[in-house]
Each structure stands twice: as C-alpha cells, then as structure tokens.
Write a structure and sequence with these properties.
Layout (H helix, E strand, L loop, with lengths): L1 H12 L4 E5 L5 E5 L5 E5 L3 H13 L2 E5 L5 H4 L5 E4 L6 E6 L3 H20 L10 H20 L6 H4 E6 L6 H8 L4 E6 L6 H4 L5 H8 L4 E4 L2 H15 L2 E3 L4 E4 L2 E7 L6 H7 L7 H7 L5 E8 L6 H14 L7 E8 L6 H21 L7 E4 L5 H10 L2 E4 L8 H9 L6 E5 L12 E3 L4 H12 L3 H17 L2 H9 L4
Parallel strand pairs: 1-4, 1-7, 4-6, 7-8, 8-9, 9-12, 13-14, 13-16, 14-15, 16-17, 17-18
Antiparallel strand pairs: 2-3, 5-6, 10-11, 11-12
Helix pairs in contact: 1-19, 4-5, 5-7, 9-10, 13-14, 13-17, 15-16
This protein binds 6-O-phosphono-beta-D-fructofuranose (F6P).
C-alpha cells in the first residue's frame, strides 16, 4: 500500500518528464564466460541497486560507464540496451572508456583521491595532476553522452538529470554550460568532510564550483550538508540563505538538503523465502551452527572489517562460553582490487581471519567463515532471514543500505542489528544496538547483550525500525529529491 502511494506520487511528478540518471557503474554488465556464452551480472553496491529498483518502476535512462568485457557485443548503434534483459523497463546507455581513463578516473581520482578525502578513516588521499585531468575529461564524456539524449529543443525543459556521487562532481557544470534550462540535481552518497580535511585538496574550488552549477545538491545526513556549506563558504565566499537552504554563488542559486535514502521494501519482501532453514547455510557453505552472526560488505577500509575482527577476537577471549555456540559468516565482495590500499587490506583480513580461526577453532567448529565473493542477492536475503545478528561496523559511511535491508528481511523475534554509530543509517535506526567499532571491549559486550536479548525486546525494536523503513522507502526518497527539480 505504502509503496503504491509513494510510487504513485513519483509517477505523477515525472509525467511528461524524461528522467536521466547518471552514475559511474551500470546496474548490469555483460561478460564472456568459458563456453563462449555471455552472462550478465548485476552490480553489487547499494547505489546501483537503488537506481535499478527505481528505474524499473519509473522508466527512463541510466547513463554509466561500461564495466563488462562483453558489453560491446550486446549494445545497439547508440551504445544502449534494454534493462532488465528480457523485460526492458528502462534504457541503459554505456560510455566506453580507455584503460588509461579507467585507471586515472576510477582507480585514481575517484577512489584514491576523493574516496579517502571524504571518509574519515585516516587513509591519506593521493593527489596527481594526471588523475585530475582525466577526471575532467571523463566528466565531459558523460555530459556529451547525456546531451546526445536530448534531441528536440523542447526536451531541454522536460529533462531532469539526476547525477550520482563523487565520480561526477564536474558534470553539472559541463551540462549547464551547454544549456541553462536543463534541470540538474546531484546526490552525493558518501560523506562530505570538514573544511580542515577538504582544504588539502588542490582542486577543491573546482569541485565546489562544479557541484554548485546544479539546481539541487543532496546528502544523506545533515552533518554532511553543514560540512559542505562550511567548505563552500570558506573557499568560495558563497552567501547562504535558509528555508530552504540556498547557496548563492555568482549568478547561480543551488538548493541544498539532506535526504536519507530508503530501500525498495516490497522488492525485499518479494525475494524472501517463505521457509528458511539452517540447511541453506550447510548446503552453501558446508557448516552447521547454533547462532549465526552475519556481515555483508564490499572489502573496503571504510567498512571497519579489521575492527570487526578485533572485536570478534576479544569476544571469544572474554566470553569463551560462546566457543562452538556462535559462528560468524562474513561475506566480503572483492572491490577496487587494483588499488594498493585495498590489496593490503585484503591481506590483513585474510591473516587476521586465519589467526582467529586458529586460536579458537575446535575439532568440529571454526569461529569465522570468510566468503570473499560476490553472492547472489536472493541468497543474501535468505541469509538475512536466518541470521541472529547482522554486524555492520563501518568507520564512516554515507548511509549503509545493508543495515536497512537486514531489518526488513530478518525474523523480527529472532534477528537484531548491531550497527556502527558512524553509518548514516544509525540516525534512522536508533532502535538497533549502536556501537563505536573502535571500542573493542564495549562492542564485544554489545554482542553478548544482543545474543541474550529477549524475543519480546527484539520484536519491539524491529517493529519500530521496519515501519520507519517501510514508510520512508526508495520511492519517497526519489520523490523528495526530484520534486526539487520538476
Ligand atoms: O557509495 C559509494 C559507492 O561508490 C556507490 O556509488 C557504489 O554503490 C559503491 O560505492 C560501490 O562502488 P564501486 O562502483 O566502486 O564498486
């Protein structure tokens, strides 16, 4: 019911409008497999899932860079294809980058400069002129690809462009330079740093000016909005006006706000199995368990995986009664693997898992099962249904959608979320058990507290969280964002 209300409002808003969503990675990629066949893969990562779910309902165009080695064999003359493959709810248009461009743009400026600059996790950003130059060029390519979609003069007024994330900060500027009538909004899904951190970036003014060419900029949380305003004020001397918050810079006015992203509640419900049994875990991973603690992330230093392992180590040391009683299933999708900091992290995780498993294993049990793979979404949802705890420990995170997905899919009498207070989602999910993942001892105590929480208490907390997530779903989020552009 709720979904249809929010979706109806969104459909009405977008009537006679053309929606173009720009993001770095497409929702689907096509790859050659060993027998000469081509297989498609859905991208892991919260933001891609969000826009796939959204465009399936609203229709429109997604513009992203190609990331599959068989994409070229699937596309039409306009570099486009219909998604999902047989149904074709929306159009996916791909941009093909050269290897050097991917290296400098994606592995370089986006993920070794901006990513560590924006996440407060003490990994130093790296600044290279050539990375920045390519970042500009790739943003220009995105602009050109979007402008090709606007064929009639009248389309400029009727097109709404939703730009996503730190990969495309210059895109609003390049679009507006072509036509001021275009409506452009940016959603910055990762944190925005304080000025004391941001000021070290040599291209900070250009980044701010690029973003401030848009009509609307949104972040998940108000503290990121406050940081952004502080940076724009100190670096560009912009004027701000509140109600709604406006930034006035040169002859431009940009609205700015915080809109915490929701998820597709009904989609998760529809993917849940009617009956789940522990046998699924035995079949998929080969182990039995008494209590299951799950985590699902990309292997990324912002996710607090080392801190989580330190907590697990301390937990078994302080509470040896849980040996053989509690098993951790850690699913970690490989991510950005060509970057040295990610390679190093991967080694550290493997070493620590091995150390903890050696320390506490018995003849027929091991504490941690680390699955270093991308796992099919439907399967993940069945693990959510089974898990007694979902253990989400980011050190800094714009939102974290795994936390919200788990709350919807878990058994409300049995499951409970333990969530880092540094995830944007912690502001919405205040009934979860909130921890500081740097506090090893207290976090281990939080694990025992949660393992012993009565069912009635879990039910009460889950009910409140579920209803908040249901009400503030992805369609409401998209409506609140797009209404600033229509
Ligand atoms: O939230 C940041 C983000 O870049 C998202 O846009 C994306 O869903 C996720 O991280 C995965 O990143 P990548 O595309 O680099 O694998």
């Amino acid at each position: 019911m709720q979904e249809s209300n929010n979706l109806d409002k969104l459909a009405k808003l977008l009537k006679n409008k053309k929606l173009i969503v720009a993001l770095q990675r497409p929702s689907y990629s096509y790859n050659k497999v060993y027998n000469g066949k081509i297989k498609y893969e859905k991208s892991a990562g919260g933001v891609h899932l969000l826009f796939d779910a959204l465009l399936k309902k609203t229709g429109g165009t997604m513009i992203a860079r190609s990331s599959g080695n068989a994409d070229k064999l699937i596309i039409d003359k306009e570099n486009s294809l219909k998604i999902p493959p047989k149904k074709g709810d929306y159009k996916l248009k791909l941009i093909f980058l050269k290897k050097k461009e991917v290296e400098n743009f994606y592995y370089g400026f986006a993920n070794q400069t901006l990513w560590p600059l924006c996440h407060n996790v003490f990994v130093k950003p790296i600044f290279h002129q050539s990375w920045w130059d390519t970042y500009l060029q790739v943003n220009q390519k995105f602009a050109q690809s979007i402008l090709e979609e606007i064929k009639e003069k009248n389309d400029f007024k009727n097109t709404v462009i939703w730009v996503n994330d730190y990969h495309l900060a210059l895109l609003p500027k390049f679009l507006k330079e072509k036509n001021k009538e275009l409506k452009v909004g940016v959603f910055w899904h990762i944190p925005w740093p304080t000025y004391e951190i941001f000021r070290i970036c040599p291209w900070r003014k250009e980044l701010l000016e690029g973003l401030l060419s848009s009509d609307f900029i949104a972040f998940h949380r108000s503290y990121h909005v406050a940081n952004f305003i502080q940076c724009a004020t100190r670096d560009l001397g912009v004027i701000t006006d509140s109600e709604p918050t406006l930034i006035i810079f040169k002859d431009l006015k940009t609205k700015i706000g915080n809109l915490p992203a929701g998820i597709d509640y009904e989609e998760i419900k529809s993917q849940m199995r009617k009956k789940v049994s522990k046998k699924i875990i035995k079949k998929d991973f080969g182990f039995d368990y008494k209590k299951l603690i799950l985590s699902v992330d990309r292997i990324d230093y912002t996710k607090g995986i080392i801190e989580r392992l330190n907590i697990i180590d301390f937990f078994f040391q302080k509470y040896p009664q849980y040996i053989e009683e509690v098993t951790f299933l850690m699913i970690g999708a490989p991510s950005r693997t060509h970057i040295p900091a990610y390679k190093k992290l991967s080694h550290e995780i493997n070493d620590l898992v091995e150390k903890i498993n050696w320390r506490y294993s018995t003849s027929n049990w091991q504490p941690i099962h680390f699955i270093n793979q991308t796992i099919d979404r439907k399967k993940i949802i069945s693990y959510y249904q089974l898990a007694d705890i979902c253990f989400v420990t980011p050190l800094d995170d714009g939102m974290n959608l795994v936390a919200k997905e788990y709350v919807i899919a878990c058994n409300p009498k049995n499951g409970m979320l333990i969530l880092s207070q540094f995830a944007g989602a912690a502001k919405d999910l205040t009934e979860a058990i909130l921890i500081n993942p740097y506090e090893v001892e207290k976090s281990a105590d939080a694990l025992t507290y949660t393992l012993n929480m009565p069912s009635s208490e879990k039910l009460k907390r889950n009910k409140i969280m579920k209803s908040k997530i249901k009400e503030n779903d992805i369609f409401k989020w998209a409506y609140e964002f797009l209404k600033n552009l229509v």
